[in-house]
Amino acid sequence: MGFHLASSAFLDGGAVPARYTCDGPNISPPLAWSGAPPNTRSFVLIVDDPDAPDPQAPRMIWVHWILYNLPANINHLEEAICDLPPGTVAGITDFQRADYGGPCPPFGKHRYFFKLYALDILLPHSAASKTQIEQSMAGHILAQTQLMGTYLKHG
């Protein structure tokens, strides 16, 4: 089966429900994973949109959520999670915040990649941005998986 990430809120490749976006309460979706390697020490979750600002002419990857040092003994995140698991650190997103920012595309239907990494280390707490976290993860990724959802903003 391997390392696998899923959500009870949407299927891989399916539409992200409005409740997890700027058209709704903008809460984080429920996520669950399985099949992590036995020597996993921590997980990293990065949610980003490679279609920003316009899927017809993307110019950047917009980072919506970063969590790192998720404990190796957990396998899910509740919907609208506020109290992160002990030791978990939230990184700084492109919204300039350390929390979830849901889909809110200015043009067209965008893709949102929920990428989960199993690492053989805990990351330094100074790794705040996606770039810093990816640099710290280099050479320590045991497995990775992803879930992709799409969203087209209403109105």
Offer a quick outline of the entry:
By secondary structure, the chain is mainly beta. 5% of the residues lie in helices and 37% in strands. The mean pLDDT is 95.
Structure description:
It is a single chain. This protein is mostly beta strands. The protein has one domain: PEBP-like (Phosphatidylethanolamine-binding Protein, Alpha-Beta Complex). Helices cover 5% and strands 37% of the residues. The protein has 1 helix and 8 strands. It has a 5-stranded antiparallel β-sheet with strand order 6-4-3-7-8, covered by helices on one side. The chain has a 3-stranded antiparallel β-sheet with strand order 1-2-5, with no helix packed on it. It starts with a strand and ends with a strand. The mean pLDDT is 95.
Output the keywords.
155 residues; mainly beta; Phosphatidylethanolamine-binding Protein; five-stranded antiparallel β-sheet; 1 helix; globular
